[in-house]
Design brief:
Distance between the termini: 42 Å
Structural class: alpha/beta
Length: 295
């Protein structure tokens, strides 16, 4: 039975309901990032063995300017900033809710791929999330992630050392900027629980074939864009995901990939946000490391 985002048809038919705000469920109410000291809800919890030294945690900001709409975007970098010119960096694009504190345990996990601090990790709050300025928009999200790439490039990162990881709604900028690069061309694409398109999202929500444009102005279509991606592709999805269903979304994205190399990790018992936990953190980190380090 579909629990996921079932929205009664009578509500979907109401002109005041838009899925845009549902997909951008941001929380801009915080005054500062707590990170390890954050006392609110987090998506998953990780043990102290995954902690990162304070000296390697850097809160930064950058300007993002799509079509003249200049906003300050806030981000966190894990690693030695002075080594970006030689390190490999994972750029993490988080999901649709709250802010960086909610995803902080996930960001720390990525800083433990292979070995602690083997790779740098950069994660940002899209505009409208956390401390980042402005309203949340699709184009703004792409511009914000590209602004992070611009910062990394200024710090000396080159294309072949950039890996992009998109979770949930974050799969949109990750796929978009790999398929149609702007500032940099990511060398690898990792997607966790990606959604295929806003059309499929609406169909899953209503149970009917309805035009997505009636309920949202979003034009996200990972299912089509993935066809343009040539770079190696890592896909992971919880089989029991009741928010973005694996059958209608994840399998579509993975099946449409026609590039050089792909891996699929279907995690039995995994729901939308707990797949790394259900898989087991050591197994999750090992899978990521093997993908990155493959010949």
């Amino acid at each position: 039975m579909k629990k996921l985002i079932y929205i009664p048809l009578i509500l979907l038919s109401c002109s005041c309901l838009r899925l845009d705000s549902f997909l951008f469920n941001a929380d801009p109410s915080i005054e500062s990032y707590g990170l390890d000291d954050y006392e609110g809800t987090v998506e998953i919890e990780v043990g102290p063995e995954y902690d990162i030294a304070d000296s390697l945690i850097h809160l930064i900001s950058m300007q993002s300017d799509p079509s003249g709409d200049n906003k300050k975007i806030h981000a966190v970098y894990l690693g030695n900033v002075a080594n970006i010119a030689t390190d490999t960096v994972i750029l993490y694009c988080h999901g649709n809710r709250d802010h960086l504190d909610f995803y902080w345990p996930r960001v720390k996990l990525l800083a433990n791929v292979g070995a602690k601090n083997r790779y740098g990790v950069l994660a940002m709050d899209y505009r409208g999330f956390g401390l980042s300025e402005g309203p949340s928009t699709e184009e703004g999200m792409y511009a914000d992630v590209d602004a992070c790439m611009r910062w990394l490039k200024l710090m000396g990162l080159t294309d072949e050392r950039l890996i992009i990881y998109g979770f949930s709604v974050g799969s949109a900028p990750a796929t978009k900027l790999t398929a149609e690069p702007r500032t940099m061309q990511p060398a690898m694409l990792m997607l966790e629980a990606p959604f295929a398109s806003e059309e499929v999202f609406v169909e899953d929500a209503s149970g009917l074939s309805l035009p997505g444009s009636y309920f949202t102005s979003l034009e996200i279509n990972n299912g089509d864009l993935i066809r343009k991606v040539e770079e190696p592709f890592f896909w992971i999805h919880g089989v029991d995901d009741d928010y973005i269903q694996i059958k209608t979304h994840g399998e579509t994205v993975f099946g449409n990939y026609e590039g050089t190399y792909s891996e699929a990790h279907r995690i039995e018992g995994g729901n939308h946000g707990d797949t790394p936990y259900i898989m087991g953190y050591p197994e999750y980190l090992t899978a990521l490391a093997k993908f990155i380090e493959r010949p």
